[in-house]
Protein backbone atom coordinates (compact mmCIF):
# COMPACT_ATOMS: atom_id res chain seq x y z
CA UNK A 1 0.00 0.00 0.00
CA UNK A 2 1.26 3.45 -0.89
CA UNK A 3 0.01 6.99 -0.25
CA UNK A 4 1.32 10.37 -1.25
CA UNK A 5 0.33 14.02 -1.34
CA UNK A 6 2.14 15.83 -4.14
CA UNK A 7 3.31 19.45 -3.99
CA UNK A 8 4.19 22.09 -6.59
CA UNK A 9 7.84 21.18 -7.08
CA UNK A 10 9.31 18.43 -9.22
CA UNK A 11 7.50 18.77 -12.54
CA UNK A 12 7.96 20.33 -15.97
CA UNK A 13 5.08 22.83 -16.21
CA UNK A 14 5.89 26.53 -16.55
CA UNK A 15 4.47 29.86 -15.41
CA UNK A 16 1.37 29.77 -13.21
CA UNK A 17 1.41 25.97 -13.39
CA UNK A 18 5.00 25.47 -12.26
CA UNK A 19 5.82 22.85 -11.89
CA UNK A 20 4.12 19.55 -10.94
CA UNK A 21 0.62 20.43 -12.13
CA UNK A 22 -1.45 17.25 -12.53
CA UNK A 23 -4.64 18.73 -14.01
CA UNK A 24 -5.51 18.76 -17.70
CA UNK A 25 -8.45 21.16 -17.33
CA UNK A 26 -6.70 24.30 -16.07
CA UNK A 27 -5.08 25.58 -19.27
CA UNK A 28 -1.65 23.99 -18.91
CA UNK A 29 0.07 22.26 -21.84
CA UNK A 30 -1.31 18.72 -22.09
CA UNK A 31 2.11 17.22 -22.84
CA UNK A 32 3.53 18.81 -19.69
CA UNK A 33 0.66 17.50 -17.57
CA UNK A 34 1.10 13.97 -18.95
CA UNK A 35 4.81 14.11 -18.14
CA UNK A 36 4.00 15.36 -14.64
CA UNK A 37 1.60 12.46 -14.17
CA UNK A 38 4.35 10.05 -15.22
CA UNK A 39 6.66 11.62 -12.64
CA UNK A 40 4.02 11.31 -9.91
CA UNK A 41 3.33 7.68 -10.84
CA UNK A 42 7.03 6.82 -10.70
CA UNK A 43 7.28 8.36 -7.24
CA UNK A 44 4.42 6.17 -6.01
CA UNK A 45 6.05 2.87 -6.97
CA UNK A 46 7.48 0.71 -9.73
CA UNK A 47 4.79 -1.98 -9.40
CA UNK A 48 2.02 0.39 -10.37
CA UNK A 49 -0.40 -0.72 -13.09
CA UNK A 50 -1.57 2.86 -13.60
CA UNK A 51 -3.03 5.95 -11.94
CA UNK A 52 -6.73 6.71 -12.35
CA UNK A 53 -7.79 10.36 -12.28
CA UNK A 54 -11.39 11.63 -12.25
CA UNK A 55 -13.47 14.52 -13.54
CA UNK A 56 -14.44 16.10 -10.22
CA UNK A 57 -17.75 17.96 -10.00
CA UNK A 58 -18.27 18.55 -6.24
CA UNK A 59 -20.90 15.80 -6.02
CA UNK A 60 -21.08 12.47 -4.21
CA UNK A 61 -20.80 9.95 -7.05
CA UNK A 62 -18.49 7.03 -6.30
CA UNK A 63 -16.82 4.97 -9.05
CA UNK A 64 -15.21 1.57 -8.50
CA UNK A 65 -12.07 1.21 -10.62
CA UNK A 66 -11.22 -2.25 -11.93
CA UNK A 67 -8.83 -1.15 -14.67
CA UNK A 68 -7.08 2.22 -15.03
CA UNK A 69 -8.00 4.30 -18.08
CA UNK A 70 -7.04 7.62 -19.66
CA UNK A 71 -10.75 8.41 -19.58
CA UNK A 72 -11.56 10.30 -16.38
CA UNK A 73 -14.94 9.21 -14.95
CA UNK A 74 -17.16 11.95 -13.60
CA UNK A 75 -17.06 11.36 -9.85
CA UNK A 76 -15.77 12.74 -6.57
CA UNK A 77 -14.62 9.44 -5.11
CA UNK A 78 -12.71 6.57 -6.67
CA UNK A 79 -12.41 3.16 -5.02
CA UNK A 80 -10.48 0.03 -5.97
CA UNK A 81 -9.83 -3.36 -4.45
CA UNK A 82 -7.14 -4.26 -6.98
CA UNK A 83 -3.48 -4.00 -5.93
CA UNK A 84 -1.32 -1.88 -8.21
CA UNK A 85 -4.05 0.51 -9.31
CA UNK A 86 -3.49 3.97 -7.88
CA UNK A 87 -6.29 6.49 -7.43
CA UNK A 88 -5.82 10.26 -7.57
CA UNK A 89 -7.84 13.18 -6.26
CA UNK A 90 -6.79 16.63 -7.54
CA UNK A 91 -7.09 19.72 -5.36
CA UNK A 92 -6.02 23.33 -5.02
CA UNK A 93 -7.86 24.21 -1.76
CA UNK A 94 -10.37 21.38 -1.22
CA UNK A 95 -9.39 18.42 0.95
CA UNK A 96 -7.75 15.38 -0.64
CA UNK A 97 -9.05 12.52 1.51
CA UNK A 98 -7.45 9.09 1.22
CA UNK A 99 -9.12 6.04 2.75
CA UNK A 100 -7.30 2.75 3.25
CA UNK A 101 -8.20 -0.74 4.42
CA UNK A 102 -6.96 -4.29 3.85
CA UNK A 103 -9.38 -4.90 0.96
CA UNK A 104 -9.95 -1.51 -0.68
CA UNK A 105 -8.67 2.05 -0.92
CA UNK A 106 -10.32 5.31 -1.95
CA UNK A 107 -9.45 8.82 -3.10
CA UNK A 108 -12.13 11.37 -2.20
CA UNK A 109 -12.60 15.03 -3.18
CA UNK A 110 -13.98 16.92 -0.16
CA UNK A 111 -14.78 20.59 -0.63
CA UNK A 112 -17.63 22.57 0.90
CA UNK A 113 -20.10 21.16 -1.61
CA UNK A 114 -18.68 17.70 -1.04
CA UNK A 115 -19.41 18.12 2.65
CA UNK A 116 -22.96 19.24 1.91
CA UNK A 117 -23.42 16.34 -0.52
CA UNK A 118 -21.95 13.85 2.00
CA UNK A 119 -19.34 12.43 -0.36
CA UNK A 120 -17.27 10.99 2.50
CA UNK A 121 -20.08 8.81 3.80
CA UNK A 122 -20.90 7.76 0.23
CA UNK A 123 -17.34 6.49 -0.20
CA UNK A 124 -17.30 4.77 3.18
CA UNK A 125 -20.59 3.03 2.36
CA UNK A 126 -19.19 1.56 -0.86
CA UNK A 127 -15.95 0.49 0.84
CA UNK A 128 -17.91 -1.31 3.54
CA UNK A 129 -20.03 -3.02 0.90
CA UNK A 130 -16.76 -4.29 -0.57
CA UNK A 131 -15.87 -5.83 2.79
CA UNK A 132 -13.69 -3.13 4.32
CA UNK A 133 -13.92 -3.24 8.12
CA UNK A 134 -10.95 -1.35 9.55
CA UNK A 135 -10.71 1.86 7.55
CA UNK A 136 -8.16 4.59 8.21
CA UNK A 137 -8.42 8.07 6.72
CA UNK A 138 -5.56 10.36 5.74
CA UNK A 139 -6.43 14.06 5.51
CA UNK A 140 -4.23 16.05 3.16
CA UNK A 141 -3.46 19.76 2.68
CA UNK A 142 -6.33 22.20 2.12
CA UNK A 143 -7.28 25.79 2.82
CA UNK A 144 -7.51 26.69 6.51
CA UNK A 145 -10.33 28.46 8.32
CA UNK A 146 -8.34 31.71 8.60
CA UNK A 147 -8.15 31.92 4.82
CA UNK A 148 -11.46 30.46 3.65
CA UNK A 149 -13.73 33.49 3.77
CA UNK A 150 -17.26 32.89 2.42
CA UNK A 151 -20.54 34.74 2.09
CA UNK A 152 -23.14 34.65 4.87
CA UNK A 153 -25.34 32.50 2.63
CA UNK A 154 -22.68 29.85 2.05
CA UNK A 155 -21.65 29.99 5.70
CA UNK A 156 -25.22 29.30 6.81
CA UNK A 157 -25.73 26.48 4.31
CA UNK A 158 -22.63 24.57 5.39
CA UNK A 159 -22.66 25.36 9.12
CA UNK A 160 -26.29 24.26 9.45
CA UNK A 161 -25.30 20.76 8.33
CA UNK A 162 -21.80 20.78 9.82
CA UNK A 163 -21.65 23.03 12.91
CA UNK A 164 -17.92 22.50 13.39
CA UNK A 165 -17.32 24.07 9.99
CA UNK A 166 -18.37 27.45 11.40
CA UNK A 167 -15.40 29.78 11.76
CA UNK A 168 -14.29 33.40 11.38
CA UNK A 169 -11.38 35.01 9.63
CA UNK A 170 -8.94 37.27 11.46
CA UNK A 171 -11.14 40.16 10.26
CA UNK A 172 -14.15 38.49 11.90
CA UNK A 173 -15.87 37.71 8.60
CA UNK A 174 -17.65 34.38 7.94
CA UNK A 175 -15.32 31.48 7.17
CA UNK A 176 -15.42 27.71 6.92
CA UNK A 177 -13.20 25.16 8.64
CA UNK A 178 -13.46 22.23 6.23
CA UNK A 179 -10.92 20.01 8.02
CA UNK A 180 -12.77 20.34 11.34
CA UNK A 181 -16.04 19.39 9.69
CA UNK A 182 -14.45 16.41 7.95
CA UNK A 183 -12.86 15.19 11.18
CA UNK A 184 -16.31 15.27 12.80
CA UNK A 185 -17.77 13.21 9.95
CA UNK A 186 -15.00 10.63 10.29
CA UNK A 187 -15.41 10.44 14.06
CA UNK A 188 -19.16 9.92 13.65
CA UNK A 189 -18.37 6.96 11.40
CA UNK A 190 -15.80 5.57 13.88
CA UNK A 191 -12.97 6.13 11.40
CA UNK A 192 -9.50 6.78 12.78
CA UNK A 193 -7.52 9.35 10.85
CA UNK A 194 -4.03 10.65 10.21
CA UNK A 195 -3.89 14.41 9.76
CA UNK A 196 -1.34 15.75 7.26
CA UNK A 197 -2.98 19.17 7.11
CA UNK A 198 -1.17 22.17 5.69
CA UNK A 199 -2.86 25.35 4.47
CA UNK A 200 -2.77 25.56 0.69
CA UNK A 201 -3.40 29.31 0.72
CA UNK A 202 -0.53 30.07 3.10
CA UNK A 203 2.04 27.62 1.73
CA UNK A 204 3.74 28.66 -1.50
CA UNK A 205 4.85 25.05 -1.96
CA UNK A 206 1.21 24.17 -2.77
CA UNK A 207 -1.25 25.24 -5.46
CA UNK A 208 -4.15 27.40 -4.25
CA UNK A 209 -7.07 28.46 -6.42
CA UNK A 210 -8.28 30.95 -3.80
CA UNK A 211 -4.85 32.61 -3.71
CA UNK A 212 -3.88 32.54 -7.41
CA UNK A 213 -7.04 31.79 -9.47
CA UNK A 214 -5.06 30.59 -12.50
CA UNK A 215 -3.01 27.75 -11.08
CA UNK A 216 -2.33 24.03 -11.14
CA UNK A 217 -3.52 21.14 -9.02
CA UNK A 218 -1.68 18.85 -6.63
CA UNK A 219 -3.06 15.43 -5.78
CA UNK A 220 -3.56 12.85 -3.12
CA UNK A 221 -2.67 9.44 -4.54
CA UNK A 222 -3.26 6.02 -2.99
CA UNK A 223 -2.83 2.40 -4.07
CA UNK A 224 -3.59 -0.90 -2.36
From TrEMBL:
Signal peptide from the UniProt entry: none
One matching Pfam family: Cu-oxidase_4
Keyword Metal-binding: yes
Transmembrane stretches, start-end: none
A molecular function (GO) term: hydrolase activity
UniProt similarity note: Belongs to the purine nucleoside phosphorylase YfiH/LACC1 family.
Protein name in the entry: Unannotated protein
UniProt organism field: freshwater metagenome
Taxonomic lineage from the root: unclassified sequences, metagenomes, ecological metagenomes
Amino acid sequence: MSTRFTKRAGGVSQGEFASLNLALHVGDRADDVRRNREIAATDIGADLVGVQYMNQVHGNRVVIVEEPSDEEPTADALITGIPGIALAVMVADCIPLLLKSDVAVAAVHVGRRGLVNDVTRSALHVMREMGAEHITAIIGPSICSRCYEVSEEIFSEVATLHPLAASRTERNTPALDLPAALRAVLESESISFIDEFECTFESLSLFSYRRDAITGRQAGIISL
